[in-house]
Amino acid sequence: MAYANAQALLEAIQPATGGTEIYDPATGELVGRVAQKTGEDLDAAVASAKAAQPGWDKLGHEERKRLLNAAADNIEANAEALAELLSREQGKPLNGPNARFEVGGAASWLRAATAYEVEPEVVVDDGETYAAKHYRALGVVGAIGPWNWPMMISIWQLAPSLRMGNTVVMKPSEYTPLSVLALVHVLNEVLPADVLQVAAGGRDVGEKLSGHPDIAKIMFTGSTRTGKAIIRSSADTVKRLTMELGGNDAGIVLEDADPKAIAQDLFWGAFINTGQTCAALKRLYVPESIYDEVCTELTAVAKAMPMGVGLDENNVLGPLQNKAQYDIVADLVADAVNSGATVLLGANPDDQAPGYFYPTTLISDIAPDNPLVTEEQFGPALPIIKVKNSEEAVELANSLDVGLGASVWSSDRAKALEVAAQIESGTVWINSHGTIDPRVPFGGAKQSGYGLEFGLDGLKALAQPQIIKG
Ligand code: NAD
């Protein structure tokens, strides 16, 4: 069915009474209430997902594809209500590459999980030996997600899992459970009972899911620190893991880049979702020869981007989602300013105003080892580091222990490709940053994680390869 607005959707997912209150990070107003699940509730969810799995698997790929596309239709029928709820709970504006964009992306990525055939692959057939690789369902998949893109990332985890014949138990972030509960509610109006479940709760529920004997695989997106805890708690049951962890993506501008032409794309590469994006550009290396020009052009673009309450259609930037993240950004910027770095824009939060708004901030003349550069700020504050040349930029880019994405900005494609090959990251974009695509595999290098999502690789990652020989 189509819900008229976020309130109607909320009424369908909230407990009749009680529950934990969730507040709008832009206004401090109550958004809704969520029923917290216990370890026992989680056991019950896993048990019913396990019972439902063989039947779901037996439906076969064609029927699962049909149901997943019908579920995507239902997201689209409820797009505005979902976007409004997401905006109120997460803080991101409706407009710009934000809440409506995220709901649209959720529907597209769900459909993309139906766009490939996963056929058995013949690996040897020489007249004497025959061997083929088949992709079987794993069982029940546990999905643990973050608060920055709660609907889109939930789809990234659940869509390939369901497509490959697995059932799913989700554990949303405690900061954005309503967005995930609403999305799953809309999907479950179409899907058979029990194949997709949510257990909203705290870390304890996530921990129990990662050690649960009836969970075959964990799809995790979140911080590197939590990822390591999940790797440890999943060890005893030798779970399959996809780890999409933190990043600190470098952008490397080459001397031949046109500062004016790249400024807008540089801005959105860094500030999409107000900087709260795993693969956002988090440190920008610019050569001396065009440093001032890049700073000027980027500042002009950044100044023109309105920040404010998400439901106001004028805004394209919003608040930090929570106080803890606000404090991280505010502290890193304050330390950078105290170290003598130059403020090109922002760095002047209004502590009296409601909401966790931190102004769009650009910092130049900053030391390459300043914590605003070397730590993941995950907010609207970009350090711009001056370098002598691309060799120095690559060395600095590779100096950290994370490597999710990176970008090279140049008018010379051959030169950009040459630099890209030297960067230690899961993706390198050329003349854009963070432009993900459901057909193109995505995953981290180094401590940004392992495993691939999206495309055919993403589907195979949710299957148990089985070799049949003979
Ligand atoms: P987080 O690690 O704090 O929390 C993520 C989830 O893990 C939450 O649901 C939380 O309840 C759960 N959790 C916490 N402790 C747990 C434990 N011990 N066992 C099991 N589950 C546990 O991350 P966050 O602050 O919500 O998200 C921000 C981080 O996520 C950033 O570092 C960002 O770069 C990263 N991220 C990565 C990607 C990617 O694709 N690589 C995408 C989005 C976000």
Write structural notes for this entry:
The strands form 5 sheets. The chain has a 7-stranded mixed beta sheet with strand order 12-13-14-11-10-16-17, with helices on both faces. The longest helix is centred in the first third of the chain and has 20 residues, at 39-58. It has helices at residues 6-13, 39-58, 60-77, 79-90, 99-112, 150-163, 177-188, 203-211, 224-234, 259-271, 291-303, 323-338, 371-374, 390-397, 413-420, 455-460; strands at residues 20-23, 30-34, 121-125, 130-137, 140-144, 167-171, 196-198, 217-221, 240-244, 249-253, 281-287, 342-345, 361-364, 381-387, 402-403, 405-409, 427-430, 445-446, 449-450, 463-469. A hairpin with a 6-residue loop joins strand 1 (20-23) and strand 2 (30-34). The protein folds into 2 domains: 6-245 and 448-469, Aldehyde Dehydrogenase, Chain A, domain 1; 249-437, Aldehyde Dehydrogenase, Chain A, domain 2. The protein is globular and about 60 Å long. With 470 residues, it is an alpha/beta fold. The chain has 16 helices and 20 strands. It binds nicotinamide-adenine-dinucleotide (NAD). Nicotinamide-adenine-dinucleotide is lined by residues 144-148, 153, 171, 173-174, 203, 206-207, 210, 221-223, 226, 229-230, 244-247, 278, 376, 378, 404, 444, 449. Nicotinamide-adenine-dinucleotide (NAD) binds next to helix 8 and helix 9. GO terms for molecular function: oxidoreductase activity, acting on the aldehyde or oxo group of donors, NAD or NADP as acceptor. Residues 20-466 form the Aldehyde dehydrogenase domain. Residues 65-92 form a coiled coil.
